[in-house]
Design goal:
The complex is a heterodimer of chains A (about 350) and B (about 110). By secondary structure, chain A is of the alpha/beta class. Chain A has 8 helices and 20 strands. Chain A has helices spanning about 10-20, 40, 55-60, 130-140, 175-190, 210-220, 270-280, 315-330; strands spanning about 5, 25-30, 45, 50, 70, 80-85, 85-90, 95-100, 100-105, 110, 125-130, 150-160, 195-200, 225, 230-235, 240-245, 250-255, 260-265, 265-270, 305. The chains are: A alpha/beta (about 350), B mainly alpha (about 110). The complex binds iron/sulfur cluster (3 copies). The site of one iron/sulfur cluster (SF4) has 13 residues of chain B, from helix 2 and helix 4.
Chain lengths: ~350, ~110
């Protein structure tokens, strides 16, 4: 019986495990954290339909309760090597697992906002990240730096993305729509709060996204200002003063806000960077490189080593579900009638 | 004063803390479609007044939104109310009606 090891029990990893198991493949699913789906659990609601992410977490975790999937949590795979008997996966404590093929779905981490020192994250309490905002929405408790109800909130797009200074030229793909989603969530709870989104481009590329933007303007009166924030500093009363330019007017701008929310981008997780390097399948920015973005987006330069999800590039939850399935099919199509990974 | 050959311009910065968006909010009540404007500039591109003068209806929208209303009434005098802008707007903003309402509001009507 063929055994496939999957490294990383996020959305893509779990979806792939479920499809593989349904086709009679034995799956070993490794997760370095104590529980699966860490990133998804941190979300309150998902765009574009505002579905509770806990519902998706429940559906995905239910898929793991079938025969054929062994989920091994708190197990960080740090090395993958190929020998004559197959793929060996190992952690730092001399555990060794054997598999016929490996799917790397080690995912992303968010950009560390403290690296953009001029924006004051980690220095002023009124500057938070989109992750902090998501947690407040999930807890249904929105507060400013002094634990009072915020009257003004500003969102800033592209923090850690599209930025030469931090070495990330790429767009993180999900933060535009996330800012609009969070702004709407804020207005649902605090209709009196003035919400401003500072953007360079609003990349509302997915189904329903542009409509969300329209709703944000029309129904929730969210103010959109085209311009990036150059610096933020605290006022004596714990509010945040920021500088920007309204680039549509060509005028410099300043404003004071209770909260400044930094829309942090996606970077490859440490696990992604590490395995990418160890297996020589590393692409730009430490993401893992697939063979071809059009036709074989789940294979890598190494036969038997597959890739899925945000280990490759920024993706939405929807993308990850699809990519996990597609990776499972790529693996299944490499298994021959004897149940082995035959010669390519 | 001695002429040094250059002048310091009066500061033109937007202070959003001092901006009065009251007029904008009232305008939205009279012409709700204005909230949908995404500042594409199709209206100003097609506008005859824009082609021959520095009149810019798209810029007027942005100024209105940010509560910068001081010079808007004078600017709006250049509009001929021809309605070409209304025909092209991709977000369905009723610009002609918007301009009429802006003029009225700016004159306390
Ligand atoms: S999705 Fe939007 S906010 Fe995120 S990096 Fe791209 S342009 Fe910037
Ligand atoms: S054409 Fe419509 S959407 Fe575009 S700038 Fe003019 S009013 Fe706004
Ligand atoms: S109605 Fe006014 S703003 Fe619109 S196209 Fe005609 S002159 Fe320009």
């Amino acid at each position: 019986m063929t055994t496939v090891a999957i490294v990383g029990a996020g959305v893509a990893g779990i979806e792939a495990a479920s499809v593989l198991a349904a086709h009679g493949v034995k799956v070993k699913l490794f997760e370095k954290e104590a529980s699966v789906l860490g990133n998804l659990r941190s979300k309150a609601f998902l765009f574009p339909n505002f579905q509770a992410s806990d519902q998706i977490v429940d559906s995905l975790t239910a898929k793991l309760l079938v025969d054929g999937i062994e989920t091994i949590t708190a197990m960080e795979i740090v090395d993958i090597k190929h020998t004559s008997d197959g793929w060996h996966l190992s952690d730092n404590k001399n555990h060794d697992y054997l598999a016929d093929a490996v799917l790397v779905s080690t995912g992303y981490k968010v950009f560390d906002a403290a690296r953009k020192e001029e924006l004051g994250y980690g220095i002023y309490k009124g500057v938070i990240t989109s992750l902090d905002m998501e947690a407040m929405i999930k807890a249904d408790k929105l507060v400013n730096a002094v634990n009072a109800t915020p009257r003004k909130i500003a969102f800033l797009q592209c923090v850690g993305s599209r930025d030469e200074k931090v070495g990330n030229h790429y767009c993180s793909k999900v933060c535009c729509v996330t800012a609009v989603k969070q702004a709407i969530e804020v207005k649902k709870r605090l209709p009196q709060c003035e919400v401003t989104i500072f953007y360079m481009d609003l990349r509302m590329w997915g189904q329903g996204f542009e409509e969300m933007y329209r709703t944000a303007q029309e129904q929730y009166k969210i103010n959109f200002v085209r311009g990036r924030i150059s610096e933020a500093a605290a006022t004596f009363d714990g509010r945040i003063q920021l500088k920007s330019e309204d680039t549509l007017l060509g005028l410099p701008l300043k404003m004071t806000t209770d909260l400044l929310v930094l829309m942090v981008g996606m970077e490859p997780s440490e696990g992604t960077v590490n395995l990418g390097k160890k297996c020589s399948i590393c692409g730009d920015y430490g993401f893992i490189q697939s063979t071809n973005p059009h036709l074989s987006d789940n294979t890598t330069a190494i036969d038997g080593l597959f890739v899925a999800g945000t280990a490759k590039r920024p993706m939405t939850v929807q993308d990850c579900v699809n990519d996990g399935r597609s990776a499972a099919l790529a693996i299944l199509s490499r298994i021959d009638t004897t149940g082995n990974l035959g010669a390519e | 004063m001695k002429d040094f050959g250059f002048a310091i311009e009066k500061p033109r910065a937007l202070d959003l803390d001092k901006a009065d968006r009251n007029l904008y909010v009232r305008l939205l009540k009279r012409e709700p479609s204005f909230a949908r404007c995404f500042q594409c500039g199709m209206c100003s591109a097609t506008c005859s007044a824009r082609n021959f003068t520095d009149y810019n209806i798209r810029r007027i929208h942005t100024l209105m939104r940010q509560g910068q209303t001081q010079e808007l009434d004078a600017m709006l005098q250049k509009c001929m109310l021809c309605g070409k802008c209304t025909l092209v707007c991709p977000r369905g903003v009723n610009l002609r009606h918007l301009i009429i309402q802006m003029r009225k509001l700016l004159n306390n009507e």
